[in-house]
DNA sequence: CAGTGGTCTAGACCACTGG
DNA sequence: CAGTGGTCTAGACCACTGC
């Protein structure tokens, strides 16, 4: 049905790729939202007039990218940052002692400003565009450990306020989903070591000469659209950043 | 054939998982070595008396873990660190300027010693076991940027020497494969920011107060056996550590 | 051209979940 | 129990590679 039956067609991509793209569309245009169950494999194979195996392969790929989550016997669901199991997928910090990290967020301020140079380009904004800068301090097990400055395009994220942020229980990415129906699916981080006394003072580091991890993160939603820039200064005395290479 | 046909069998795992384990065995026992082509799907399905689709699923999983590499029209090959395309799979550094990084390694020393405490446990060694400590400096585009101390169990890696290391062209992991037939398939890194003046001096950092990235890496070969501990001090003024979250 | 992996189908049966 | 995803098969055909 979707297949390129006539051999003159110049472009060609496997059927399951075409299905994958259609599913991706339904995800990004809001037909299915975070946490929703999507139609069953048999329904989808009827809808697209392909075999169940082909739908499976499309779903398999999306599941491996964490966009969908398969649950045997129940169905296939849209991935969400509100699920406890993947709640900390984007938090790479571990405790040196091995203990579980209890995170607490203290929102210091929200400020609307013209997008600073380094931020503007990453978000594809113009000089006229505004961003909201969220400043917050993350405490791990009661100890202030991370200072974050989060930049969001004001147009996409209107009415951000300290009050709203403070009252929400859960991760910021969970909040983006429930408040703006915007889901982050990918992020890239650049990590450096810095000696930043201003950040250190904010984190109440007594010894101002302590080195900090500086992390610049750019987060993307569907169609690889960048929607968040996040700057983080991490104290790594008691916690470290963990990365797995495969 | 492999299937648990009688329903009393207590343990059960899918056929393709069993096949995957058999393939894993052939990889770890040296039946197929790094870079080799493994038998074709039809051969394997005949050998294990299962359908080609079942073999495919087993191979697919191993390919997604980078243990095998599929090449259409040619065959399926054992992954290797000597391939140019995955040569730098375990090097996460990027240049701030975006330029390609040309790496040069200068081996400073090789020293055999009793395994230090922090190393011994990670490698599962006893107090009697020896390790070889390789000290080297990596330069990126001509500039000394990383100081590394690499700890290898002497029993598994006999006769490491500055001369041998210096004469090998390629990555250390490529050398492990060709010299010891030992392939790293996974690694975990712990990253911190430190202010380490000894390392800084070795890297010829003039300003001794510069912060460095300290990376502790543990590398694993088949069957999740840890075989290397690596400590690295990274200057991140011109280069940064990049990480992708998905 | 023969051999390899890649796609697609149709159908059977299993394992798990929830009502 | 009905409905979901998970496994497995057999077979057809396609796309790519190297000789």
Outline the structure in words.
Chain A is α+β, with helices and mostly antiparallel strands. Chain A has helices spanning 15-28, 41-48, 52-64, 117-123, 162-167, 172-180, 197-202; strands spanning 37-38, 68-71, 75-78, 93-95, 103-114, 130-140, 143-153, 186-194, 212-221, 225-234, 239-245. The model of chain A is unreliable at 1-10 (pLDDT under 50). Chains A and B meet through strand 8, strand 9 and strand 11 of A and strand 8, strand 9 and strand 11 of B. Strand 11 (239-245) of chain A pairs antiparallel with strand 8 (186-194) of chain B, so a sheet runs across the interface.
Number of helical regions of chain A: 7
* Helix-strand makeup class of chain A: alpha+beta
Low-confidence stretches of chain A: 1-10
Strand order of the largest sheet of chain A: 5-6-7-10-9-8
Measured on Cα atoms, how large is the radius of gyration of chain A?
Answer: 21 Å
Ends apart, CA distance between termini of chain A: 39 Å
Overall pLDDT of chain A: 91
In short:
By secondary structure, the first copy, chain A, is an alpha+beta fold. Chain A has helices at residues 15-28, 41-48, 52-64, 117-123, 162-167, 172-180, 197-202, and strands at 37-38, 68-71, 75-78, 93-95, 103-114, 130-140, 143-153, 186-194, 212-221, 225-234, 239-245. In chain A, the strands form three sheets. Chain A has a six-stranded antiparallel beta sheet with strand order 5-6-7-10-9-8.
């Amino acid at each position: 049905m979707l297949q390129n039956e006539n051999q003159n067609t110049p472009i060609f991509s496997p059927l399951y790729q075409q299905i994958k793209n259609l599913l991706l569309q339904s995800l990004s245009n809001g037909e299915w939202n975070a946490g929703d169950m999507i139609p069953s494999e048999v329904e989808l194979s009827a809808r697209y007039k392909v075999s169940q195996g082909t739908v499976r392969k499309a779903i398999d790929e999306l599941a491996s990218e964490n966009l969908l989550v398969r649950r045997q016997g129940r169905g296939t669901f849209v991935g969400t940052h509100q699920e406890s199991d993947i709640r900390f997928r984007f938090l790479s910090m571990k405790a040196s002692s091995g203990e579980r990290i209890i995170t607490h967020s203290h929102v210091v301020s929200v400020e609307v400003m013209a997008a600073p140079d380094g931020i503007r380009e990453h978000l594809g904004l113009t000089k006229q565009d505004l961003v909201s800068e969220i400043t917050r301090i993350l405490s791990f097990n009661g100890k202030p450990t991370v200072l974050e400055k989060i930049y969001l395009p004001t147009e996409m994220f209107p009415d951000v306020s300290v009050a709203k942020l403070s009252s929400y229980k859960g991760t910021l990415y969970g909040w983006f989903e429930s408040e703006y129906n915007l889901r982050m699916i990918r992020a890239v981080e650049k990590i450096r070591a810095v000696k930043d006394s201003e950040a250190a003072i904010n984190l109440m580091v007594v010894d101002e000469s302590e080195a900090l991890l500086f992390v610049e993160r750019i987060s993307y939603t569907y169609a690889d659209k960048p929607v968040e820039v996040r700057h983080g200064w991490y104290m790594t005395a008691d916690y470290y950043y963990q990365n797995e290479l495969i």
